[in-house]
Amino acid sequence: MSINRSAHTITTQFCPFDINGVESLKERRQLPAQTGHNRVVQEIMSPDGLSLGYYKVSSRQQGKVVIENNNPFLQLSYTISGHKSYHTNSGRTMLASIDKHQYNYLFFPKQEIHLDWQANTQLEIFEMGISLRFFFDFLPEEHPLFPVLSKSVHHNEAALLSKANLPLQANISTILYDMLNCPLEDRYKQLYLKAKTIELLAIQLMQFEQLMGIPRPEIFTRTLRKEDVERMHLARDIIVRNMNSPCTLIDLAHQVGTNDAYLKSHFKQVFGTTVYGYLQNVKMQHAKELLAQGKSISEVTYLSGYKRVSHFARAFKKHFGYTPGILKG
Hints:
The structure is a single chain. By secondary structure, the protein is of the alpha+beta class. 40% of the residues lie in helices and 26% in strands. It has 11 helices and 13 strands. The protein has helices at 132-138, 145-155, 170-180, 186-211, 218-221, 226-241, 249-256, 260-271, 275-292, 297-303, 309-320; strands spanning 11-17, 26-30, 39-46, 50-59, 63-69, 73-81, 83-88, 93-99, 102-108, 112-117, 121-131, 159-160, 166-167. The strands form 2 sheets. Strands 2, 3, 4, 6, 9, 11, 12 and 13 form an 8-stranded antiparallel beta sheet that branches. It has a 5-stranded mixed beta sheet with strand order 1-5-10-7-8, with no helix packed on it. A hairpin with a 3-residue loop joins strand 3 and strand 4 (50-59). The longest helix has 26 residues, at 186-211.
């Protein structure tokens, strides 16, 4: 995929794309020219059915790329800065809208997909294409994304797989930049990209379950009795209701009828994270929503149960990979 620009009109670039279209590692790089051309493009395609594109564009005009897709594939779509949207049906139907510091999973069938971005913005994005064969090799059938993707593939319909965009956390961004700046060559770079893609999927698939509040699949909870699982759901509800004045683990355990050792073990087994980790996620997601509603950082600090703005800002950055001030920019 290549992004083009015109100084006076909306430029529509038609870009043929085939996720299975190379027999050896292919790379393309276009950096800003000395004339001040304002775009950076880096693209890597691997015969493993993987592609990585990095695009950084400054444009005074609205931009558009029409992706002429020759094979169905999954796209992991990340926005570092700016805003982008995808349309189908010759550009008439909105498929996805992804703001800065967000990402999502998209299924692209064999059809045209329109990528649009706004005028007067600094757009910085990653696009990670993964063949269906590769992705299904690592997507467990028990994962909540599996039936959504399978249905989209069966009906050959473009789809946004997660109803809500996911936060682009620092560990994910780090992997993407590592892949982009890999110092290896040829077959070793191909191996590196494959390994990093698997690492990326492991982190993101787990994150999806955690951020959506989805219990761990039955395969991971089969050793727990039904009443133990129900206790953990009750504990989760208590955590959410009292996120700014949390009780101790012992008190929480007593409220749900167990002890703190079982609480710690069973909670992680059901939800894939610790009690504290779940609490932090709930608090940070709520704080982000408050900031998006226009509340000041100092107000959100207080509402999130922090006494100092610096402490809140540090926790927010650790969780999302960027400071809360970015959301107020």
